[in-house]
Amino acid sequence: MRRWIWTGLLAVLAILAMVVVVGCGEEEETATQTPLAQATPVVTQTPQAEATATATPVERGPKEVILATTTSTQDSGLLDVLEPLFEDETDYNLKIIAVGTGQALAMGERGDADVLLVHAPSSEMKLIDSGAAINRQLVMHNDFIIVGSQDDPADIEGMTSADDAFAAIYDSEATFVSRGDDSGTHKKEMEIWQKAGLDPEGQSWYEQSGQGMGATLQIANQKDAYILTDRGTYLAQSENLDLVVLVEGDPIFFNVYHVMQVNPEGFDLVNGPGGAAFVDFMISDEVQAIIEDFGVDKFGQPLFIPDAGKDESELAPS
User: Fold this and answer.
1) List of residues 6+ apart from 152 with CB closer than 8 A
2) Has this prediction a pTM greater than 0.85?
3) Using the 8-state DSSP alphabet, how is residue 264 labeled?
4) Does 3.40.190.10 match the CATH number of domain 64-141+256-312?
5) Quick one: which of 138, 244, 271, 316 has the most CB atoms within 10 Å?
6) Could you tell me the sign of the dihedral formed by the alpha carbons of 255, 261, 266, 267, in that order?
7) 3 state SS of 189
8) What percentage of residues in the chain have a pLDDT greater than 70?
9) Nearest to 217 by CA among 144, 313, 151, 114
């Protein structure tokens, strides 16, 4: 009898031991499950998000005019004066998109703007020749300058040849900040490097900001670097800069601005009347008089020279 009792007890203990082992095994399996298996989410794009990703540009209202322009016209403060005047006189709402000239021209080529105010003549003519833009009018000009720190490590101060100055900067390996954004200023810079027979790409001292003129001037200022800039933006920001004018006067520095419509016959959404109104506005006697005086009271010289109605071939220095 006792042997049967002990046998029963041993059997019960064996069963309990098996239950404990199995339970521990299940706990260990759960505890060692990888976080990836536990937490990998399944992302489902909502219909709204999918529609947003593939949405076409919003249709522009008949009273909205989109201006794609270079950052120099914005950073100089000129458009801050002209925008409310245009809106008051025409009853159009002006939406300004200030980017590099290359980007502004690309917007025109795609029909994403109604009118362009830019400063890269050879690139502008490609749009005119293709039919993407029409009604190109001369507006104004200023010039480019090379500015840098007063220390002038490349010793370029007083030079009158832009390519000689660039060559000296190249040889000295002094820091040079480029916009690097296919803007009119960047295009001019590349033209000067090419004229000097030099390629700064990949050099440790050559930096590209990918930003507008005002922001790039601030970067150059922080680095005590050389930079090519239009005079208007430099003067407008001079209170916040330690950089000084070192090289000016080379004919290659001539910097001319044109306004032109994006061709409404090529794009359904382009506001043809609004674009034409802005072109007429920029070449009007009233606006040309504003341009002539803009900056004189503060800097003792205008930031731009008005040119509407002039013969452009007689403006460019030889």
Assistant:
1) 246
2) no
3) T
4) yes
5) 271
6) positive
7) helix
8) 81
9) 144
